[in-house]
Design goal:
alpha+beta; 3 domains; 11 helices; elongated; IstA-like_C; Transposase for insertion sequence element IS21-like C-terminal domain-containing protein
Length: 281
């Protein structure tokens, strides 16, 4: 006949009298055995308790064969599960809202969440090393916890929308290196675009568009347009550079570049020379 397991109720020690009684017996037996000894470290005390606990568990039962240790080895040990590979960590729980940049803010750090959860409230479990995000009791994201400088981002590519993922092959170093091949003004504009976004990856789209402008208008014109844009503002956007190129503001009229002839004042139309005043009647 199958036996039904009835769990003990919380704060009801009479539901498990054998276990509660054994705790009292062990405490009294070990304390009594060690009461006259002196210990100078917690480790030394624990070692003495371990020895006495082994002796207690090895003592034979009074009314049946075997001991507590033999029952454990023969009946209980095989049913136990292995201990976790990592030590237990204390965790704190918080509630956060997924922002439009598909990140949540935790302890002034930012962690990505699948973009489908934008504007949803999620539960966040925080330990010393891990940040886990849950929605309706299902874990949707896990990050190694960031430490150090505030405002750092931990972004997983799979959490980004598809149109953002295609820019992950590039990074800020690549864009800046490309800009250095064009000119110093383009470098300043690229850095301004990247720094204008809270998430650096969100500036990759504009930098890629700027790269395409070089293919369409030539690198010389892009450098000139960036210089023109910087004359208006220290932090120009891609749109401002594109507008300058479309309207041709980056071009300098050839007529203005031609040097003027070096003439003296006598050649001007409103000046009368010596011939005028010295002519005969």
């Amino acid at each position: 006949m199958a036996q039904q397991v009835i769990p003990a109720r919380v704060r009801k020690p009479k539901d498990k009298p054998n276990a509660e009684g054994c705790v009292g017996i062990i405490s009294t037996w070990i304390i009594a055995a060690l009461r006259n000894q002196k210990f100078f470290s917690l480790r030394e005390l624990n070692e003495s308790i371990r020895v006495k606990l082994y002796e207690f568990n090895s003592k034979p039962f009074q009314k049946k064969s075997g001991s507590r240790l033999s029952v454990f080895l023969e009946e209980e040990k095989s049913a136990l599960m292995p201990l976790p590979a990592t030590l237990y960590e204390l965790a704190a729980w918080k509630t956060a809202t997924v922002q439009f940049n598909y990140h949540i803010s935790v302890e002034k750090m930012h962690y990505s969440v699948p973009y489908e959860y934008i504007k949803h409230k999620v539960d966040v479990r925080i330990t010393r090393n891990i940040v886990e995000v849950f929605f309706n009791n299902h874990r949707i994201a896990s990050h190694v916890r960031l430490h150090g400088r505030e405002g750092q981002y931990s972004t997983i590519v799979e959490h980004m929308p598809e149109d953002h993922q295609k820019y992950t092959a590039w990074n800020s170093e690549k864009f800046i290196s490309w800009a250095e091949g064009i000119g110093p003004n383009t470098v300043i504009v690229v850095k301004a675009i990247l720094s204008s976004h809270r998430v650096e990856q969100q500036g990759y789209k504009a930098c890629t568009a700027l790269l395409k402008l070089a293919d369409k208008y030539s690198v010389i014109r892009v450098e000139a347009a960036c210089k023109k844009a910087l004359s208006y503002t220290p932090s120009p956007s891609y749109k401002s550079v594109q507008t300058i190129l479309k309207t041709g503001q980056d071009k300098v009229c050839k007529e203005n570049l031609k040097p003027t002839k070096n003439t003296n004042s006598a050649s001007f139309g409103f000046t009368r020379g010596a011939d005028y005043y010295g002519r005969k009647k």
